[in-house]
Write a structure and sequence with these properties.
This protein is mainly alpha-helical. It is built from nine helices and five strands, in the order E-E-E-E-E-H-H-H-H-H-H-H-H-H. The chain has helices spanning 55-72, 85-103, 109-132, 149-176, 184-207, 215-224, 226-253, 256-283, 286-289, and strands spanning 17-19, 25-26, 32-36, 39-43, 51-53. Helix 2 (85-103) runs antiparallel to helix 3 (109-132). The chain is globular.
């Protein structure tokens, strides 16, 4: 695990030195350098003990995070049900089914529907942020702020905005090129946007800032961990495809009440799983990505 300097309480400053006496970790600014017989020694700012570089700790951490990524990957399937997760999904399913049903008979159904979708997006943001911290249990609904409607709407707009941005690029090519038959350029742009989408979504939801969609910074992050990101992207879309296939199958059953309940539960389960996948990817690659 990468340690932060113990003398920087409120901000994360990577520690480059470890005291062999007290075991504390320090950054360059918080150690002392003394000279004895023309030999320079780095000493602890607290106890005066000898400090040694922590490169070995960093190297070990990279190996651990690599192993952790592959170790945690198969466990994403059970994440939504772990440690009370089933109860959380059931409560969420009942809540969303009831509110969506009520919204259909209200004058401002679109506004209420947007709030419901935004509330779900806030839940998925919490899943990502908790997973990025290494927390492997589903967040409770009580951790989401119900009354901040502006923030809830923004969460919905940011999420849908990523999808619209990715879809708009190949569409814009067809419009400006006046070439309505898909060609190799269209498919190349479409494939690039599909590949770009999970990392863009992770960036925007993790930082809760739509400007994190910047393709330059997103692709820079992808290039830092290309193979693991490729695995994550494939698993992400496999989860999405499986979820959609189940939802279509449920819709074809035409069981009105039970079908709606199962439909909501399945979608909540699979979206929660996919958001945890993104958060887990960040947790095991945060150092290499350089994200705060």
């Amino acid at each position: 695990m990468i340690r932060n300097c113990v003398l920087h309480d409120n901000i994360e400053v990577p520690a480059k030195w470890r005291c062999t006496n007290c075991g504390n970790h320090f950054c360059d600014d918080c150690v002392k350098t003394i000279s004895i017989h023309n030999n320079a020694f780095t000493t602890c700012a607290q106890c005066g003990g000898k400090c040694v570089p922590s490169e070995r700790i960093v190297a070990q951490t990279k190996d651990v995070s690599r192993k952790e990524f592959w170790k945690r990957l198969p466990r994403i399937l059970g994440y939504p049900l772990r440690s009370g997760g089933l109860y959380i999904l059931v409560v969420g399913t009942i809540f969303f089914v009831l509110t969506e049903t009520i919204a259909k008979y209200m004058l401002f159904a679109f506004i209420l529907g947007s709030l419901i979708a935004g509330f779900m997006c806030k839940f998925y943001v919490k899943v990502i942020r908790n997973s990025a911290k290494g927390i492997e249990t589903t967040p409770s609904w009580g951790e989401i702020e119900f009354t901040d409607f502006g923030d809830i709407i923004m969460a919905f707009l940011r999420t849908i905005g990523v999808a619209l941005f990715c879809g708009a690029i190949p569409l814009a090519y067809m419009i400006f090129a006046s070439h309505w038959t898909p060609d190799w350029v269209f498919f190349a742009l479409l494939g690039t946007c599909i590949f770009y989408f999970p990392m863009a979504l992770l960036s925007v939801l993790y930082y809760e800032d739509f400007f994190e969609i910047n393709p330059i910074s997103v692709f820079r992050s992808i290039l830092k961990v290309p193979f693991r990101y490729l695995v994550v992207a494939l698993v992400f879309f496999a989860i999405t495809a499986l979820g959609w296939a189940l939802l279509v199958s449920i819709a074809m059953l035409e069981i009105i009440i039970i079908g709606v309940i199962i439909h909501r539960f399945v979608s909540l389960y699979f979206y929660t799983m996919s958001m945890h996948l993104l958060g887990m990817f960040l947790a095991t690659n945060k150092q290499r990505l350089g994200w705060d």
